[in-house]
Design a protein that fits this description.
- The chain starts with 36 loop residues before the first strand and ends with a helix.
- The relative contact order is 0.17.
- It has an eleven-stranded mixed β-sheet with strand order 9-8-10-20-19-11-12-18-15-17-16, sandwiched between helices. A four-stranded antiparallel β-sheet has the order 2-1-7-6, with no helix packed on it. A three-stranded antiparallel β-sheet has the order 3-4-5, with no helix packed on it.
- It contains 14 helices and 22 strands.
- Helix content is 31%, strand content 19%.
- The protein is of the alpha/beta class and 528 residues long.
- It has three domains: 1-239 and 443-528, Isopropylmalate Dehydrogenase (3-Layer(aba) Sandwich); 257-272 and 315-428, Isopropylmalate Dehydrogenase (3-Layer(aba) Sandwich), CATH 3.40.718; 275-314, no CATH class.
């Protein structure tokens, strides 16, 4: 995962001026090109492939508002790149509304396994004339001009997305000498989608991400207590993005409450689909809750107070093991020393305890020659070059990250544990403003800002875009564009060293100059 090296702090007055580097130019979207595809995997160098799958014939009308209406006809599924329309919804047996019973305006399909939708004509971000990213035999096939959908997000989402896109376009152009380019394709979700089409998560958005396989998003609104279920959770479940990956490390110079924050360098793999976030819960006093209580009481003699709200915590061997496999594969690929299974198996013996048992089991079955249990690694003689597999109780893990952070490298955890740990760890190194995140499945991935929408700052060009920018760096690494990810990290480090930072950092850094969101992006480009 990406990281930074040196950095310094400071404080001062707000300055709205740019840090624009001489010669830095924005990259206009939509230059068509059918270049050589690059077949990449995270465990081996990119492989040159001759496959081409550009757009089919069609007509493009450019409107005054910088939008284009692109129409393509479905000649073959390998050549169509227009945003797809609704899938065969008649075949979708479940819906996101089932997660949020009685709420309207969320797309219908929530199948964990799905077929790619049949594309149809649609409006796209001018001009989405690039090529689709493909996934074959566990490898990403990445063209030089990939189409990547984006959701700008709610609240401050448009502000941070504009800054992030500026950084991405400039640095892709810079490191490739203009040979590579992203064709960005906007898709709708959240408040913007609801206002425009009356749907919080349109089916067309899901189909487009399925077709193009990778996307990046800003923060989306999630009401507390009532209203719609989390759109972030819905996206993960619909696309079966079972691994939430959260790298946490300290960037020198960033304010931190810890004495030695640089000791924390951990990548957290959180199960994304199951556990208490599965969405199976019922309001207190509802017929569903009373029925569940009645069944458990009468059938199994469970002691549950009448009138309770009920939530179900499903955790499967399949879901747990594929998460642990992804964590171990990353540790082996990145040269990380250990993978720690975090659980509360001392209390929840068959769910959290099952996660621990299944994790050890798959480590031995799949990686027996490359891993070793912590209990067997004490003498240091038999574990040379092997990843140590260990486990910790959840509450003890929180303490360990504070007291002995250097002993942990990769963490694999169930959904709720991973959620709490990742945010707590981010607080140790300066907060969510610089905490990236990615949701990855098998052939699909959505990268995202990990913080909330901060609506009170919306439209003020004020907040820190670091989270979504670093999430973009994770995306480029996943695609094999490591040079772009490195440039982003280098640029962010340089911006911090220049002491020209957004308000959240400037208020805690004596001598720093506060700059706007857009000016901070220009500083990153300048120092990359």
């Amino acid at each position: 995962m990406v990281g930074l090296n040196d950095g310094e702090g400071g404080r001062g007055n707000r300055d709205g001026s740019d840090c624009r580097a001489a010669g830095a130019t924005s990259v206009s979207p939509g230059v068509p090109g059918v270049g050589t595809a690059v077949d990449t995997t995270r465990s081996s160098p990119p492989v040159i492939s001759s496959q081409k799958h550009g757009p089919s014939d069609g007509i493009v009308w450019c409107l005054p508002a910088a939008w284009c209406v692109a129409w393509w006809w479905h000649a073959s599924s390998a050549r169509v790149v227009a945003p797809p329309g609704p899938a065969n919804s008649q075949q979708a047996a479940a819906s996101v509304n089932r997660i949020s019973r009685g709420e309207l305006g969320i797309a219908s399909s929530v199948r964990p396994l799905f077929r790619l939708a049949q594309p149809r004509p649609g409006r796209v971000d001018c001009l989405a004339m690039g090529e689709r990213i493909e996934y074959r035999d566990g490898r990403w096939v990445v063209p030089t001009h990939p189409i990547i959908p984006f959701i700008e997000g709610d609240g401050t989402g448009p502000d941070i997305w504009r800054a992030a896109r500026r950084v991405f376009d400039a640095l892709v152009q810079k490191v490739s000498g203009g040979k590579r380019q992203i064709d960005w394709l906007e898709v709708l979700a959240g408040e913007k989608a609801f206002k425009q089409v009356g749907n919080w998560l349109p089916e067309a958005t899901l189909d487009t991400i399925r077709t193009h396989r990778m996307a990046i998003k800003g923060p989306l609104t999630t009401p507390v207590g009532g209203g719609i279920r989390s759109l972030n959770v819905a996206l993960r479940q619909v696309l079966d993005l079972y691994a939430c990956i959260r790298p946490v490390r300290y960037f020198e110079g960033v304010p931190s409450p810890m004495r030695e924050p640089q000791k924390l360098d951990v990548v957290i793999f959180r199960e994304n689909i199951e556990d208490v976030y599965s969405g199976v819960e019922y309001r207190a006093g509802s017929p569903e809750a009373d029925a569940v209580i009645g069944f458990l009481t009468e059938r199994f003699g469970a002691k549950i107070r009448p009138g309770s709200a009920i939530g179900i915590k499903p955790m499967s061997k399949f879901g747990s093991q594929r998460l642990v496999v992804k964590a171990i594969e990353y540790a082996l690929r990145a040269g990380r020393r250990s993978v720690t299974l975090v659980h509360k198996g001392n209390i929840m013996k068959f769910t959290e305890g099952g996660f621990r048992e299944w994790g050890y089991e798959v480590a031995e079955a799949r990686f027996g020659e490359k891993t070793i249990r912590e209990a067997d690694a004490g003498d240091g003689k038999r574990d040379a070059g092997k990843v140590i597999i260990k486990d910790r109780i959840t509450d003890a893990m929180f303490a360990q990250l504070v007291l002995r952070p250097e002993e942990y490298s990769v963490i694999a955890a169930p959904n709720l544990n991973g959620d709490l740990l990742s945010d707590a760890a981010a607080a140790q190194v300066g907060g969510l403003g610089l905490a990236p995140g990615g949701n990855v499945g098998d052939g699909y991935a959505v990268f995202e800002a990990t913080h909330g929408t901060a609506p009170k700052y919306a439209g003020q060009d004020k907040v820190n875009p670091g989270s979504v920018i670093l999430s973009g760096a994770m995306m480029f690494e996943e695609l094999g564009w490591d040079d772009v990810a490195t440039a982003i990290a280098r640029g962010l480090g340089g911006a911090i060293r220049s002491r020209r930072v957004t308000y959240d950092l400037a208020r805690l850094m004596p001598g720093a100059t506060e700059v706007s969101t857009s000016a901070f992006a220009e500083c990153i480009i300048e120092h990359a």
